[in-house]
Structures are given as structure tokens and as C-alpha cells.
Amino acid sequence: MSSLNQYIDLFEHNRRQLYDSSPEVFNRLRPAALSALERLGRFPGKRDEGYRNFSVDEVFAPDFGVNVGRVSFAVDVARTFRCDVPNLSTLLGVVVNDEFRPTATLLKNCPEGVTVMSLAEAARRYPDLVASRLGNIADNSSASAALNTLLLQDGVFVHIAPGVRLDKTIQIVNIFNASANLLSFRRVLVVVEDGASARLLMCDHTQNTDNDYLSSQVVEIFLGRGASLDYCDIEESSERTSRLSQMYVSQEADSNLSVNASSLTVGHTRNEYRVDLLDRGASAEIAGMAIAGGNQLVDSSTLIRHLAPYCHSNQLFKYLLDDNSRGAFEGLIYVAPDAVHTEAYQSDRNILASEGARMHTSPHLEIYCDDVKCSHGAATGQLDSQALFYMQTRGVPLAEARMMLMQAFMSDVIDRVRIDGLRDRLRRLVERRLNGDRTTCGDCAASCNK
Question: Which of 104, 217, 286, 413 qualifies as a cystine partner to 259, CB 3.0-4.6 A?
């Protein structure tokens, strides 16, 4: 029996409570999501194309609790934020499991034309705006996205009005903390209107590491004409935390998207990206890095669809795998027949630091237009033995030489981060992680605050 059935049963048993406690915008989406799930019948597993390393069915199979009754969980927010990004002033919001909580700083300092708030509250205050976007591109063809819609209760809403250039970075920190195993359905809706720009930093942490957690996250991003968004995602959770994150992006003419994702401390995680370049001159860059050890798994899947002329995309993913960890990357660049003068590049580079580590990589091009510049490539190997030998002959200990080479390997992903303070923070996080420290940001609060 598919693990999906238990969640359909959960919905049926709690249908009235979900409908009574949710805004009408959410409730209008549930019937189509339920029909899609009943038609699909199951989550994808390892026999399905694109999921040979990450079985969604297996990840959802355990008997997680779902907070249908909206029980409020306490968190030590100060502990989590002491280790914040240096020299970076942010508009800060917190998601505890799946409940959005604004900070006093956010409520006080949000500029005119910028809205950062609970998605449920936004659906009640701005129903037409939210209804016109929510569920628009995160369609029900994916069972996990449809389930997220079916059981949606809250999330994050970010809206940047036309022409607004936001200087401060919006920071959303997702915190898992519960007294039992928990599954949270997180939803993020980002709308950057024509000529506007913003920077968004998402951070994942696990505060109570004694339980198993699963995050089902769906992110929908709409970029208007000439809009720009820098989106950074840092995952520092726990080895008992699994995550399935699905990002859907719709870009109008001359818009620009930069995504930078870092998986530093994880259990089993899968990040999916689908970007539609809809009109002339749109551009997207996705960079990702993962450092995994033990029995951790990091899986990335990308689909960039060039649907208009003169669009540009660039992808760079790097994995550093140790112990018995596993990594996977599958990417597809699609170029439509009329998308002339497309430029699209895709690169995946990986290092296996142990005999037990495994990497699966599968880049693809699907091109229906002649006048394009496209390339893709993948390489998996070990640390350069000659470089290690050279460094040792000059007095560098082997362990230090290995770490220096691994840091250098990740540097070009970090350099693509367009938030200045965050680049320095990421370098320190990577150094700490490569030194064998798998503690989360909150666990190092005392030392980071000195």
C-alpha cells in the first residue's frame, strides 16, 4: 500500500476542521488537489524515473504527526539567532514547524511596498492577490505538491510592489521543534512585481534533535517584467530531519533570478527546481553545494524551460561526499522551437572522499531550436593526489591539505552568492563542516557570539 493513502485518510478524518480553520483561498484549492492524489494513487519511488536515489514514498511512509489542530510549539528563538549572518541587517521572520511568526523587527521596519507575513493571514487580507498566484505554477501533477496543497494551513507570503528596490535582505528561518515525530507542510509564495528587486534568505534548523522530522516545502516565485530576486537557501538541520523542497518559478521579460542552495547538515533531502523563462531576455542562475557524511543523502533535480528568445540560464552544482553518504543530480534544459538565441549551461562536479560514498549524475539537453548555445557536463572523482603530495612536501599536514583542497573546490559556488555578508558566513560554515563539526547554528551560539 502506498504511504499516500494515510494522508488522504488524515484529510478525510479532519476535513471539517481544516476547512473551518483555513481561509477560503486555501479551501478552494483542496478539491482539485484531492482529485489529483486519488488519480495518481501513490508517491514516486525508486523504480520511477528521476527518483532512483530518493523514494518519496519511503520518506513519507513513517507515522509522522501532522499539526492539524494548530498546537503552538515554543522555540528558543534567541538561541537560533545568536549565530546570525555578520554585517547583514535583515527583515526577520520565523516559521516554527509550519506556523509563521513575525519578529518585532519585521513588523517595525518593513518598508512601504514590501509585505512579509503569514500566508494564511495574507489570504484573508488580500484574497484576490493570493488567489491569483497560489497554486498557479505548483500544479497537481506532482503528488507531493498536491498533498502540500491539500493539507496547507500556513506559510510565508512575500510581496514586493512594482518598482520597489528593497535594500535589506528578507530572512525566513524555519525551525523544527516538537515533542514527537512531526511532518510539516510549508508553503512560500513570493511575488516580485514589475521593476522590483529583493533578496530572500531561507535557513532551516532543527532545535529538538531527539525526534524525526519531515518538511514538505513548496515555493512559488513570480517575477514580473524587469524584476530581480536573489534567493539563498541554507540547510543546517539534523541527521533525523528529512526535506522535500519543490521550487516553481515563473519569469517575465528581462527578469533575473539567482538561486544559491547549501546543504550542510541534513538527513535525507531532495531539492527540486522548475524554472520557466516565459519572455524575451529572462535569465536564471542556480548554484548548489552539498557536504554529506555518514548515511546522509542529498538529491537535486532541475528543469529549466527556455520558452522565449534571448533567454539565459546557468547551473552549477557541487557535491562533497564522505563515509557512506549518497548524492544525486538530475538536470534537464529544455529549449522550445521558437526560443532562438538561447544560452543555457549546466555543470555538475563531485568529489568522493571515501570508498563508501556514491554519486549519481544525469544531465540532459532537450533542444528544438538550432540557433542556440547550450552545454552540459558532469564529472565525479577524488581529491587530486598530486596536489596533496605537493602540499605535504611543503610541510602542510595531510588533514589540513585535504581541507584546503575541499574548501577551494566549493569556492566558486560560494562566490556566486550575491549577498555580501552571507558569502563570508558560508565560508566559515563550510570550514566548520569540513572540520567535522556537524552541530547546527544554534548549537554553536556561544562560540559564534564571542
Answer: 286
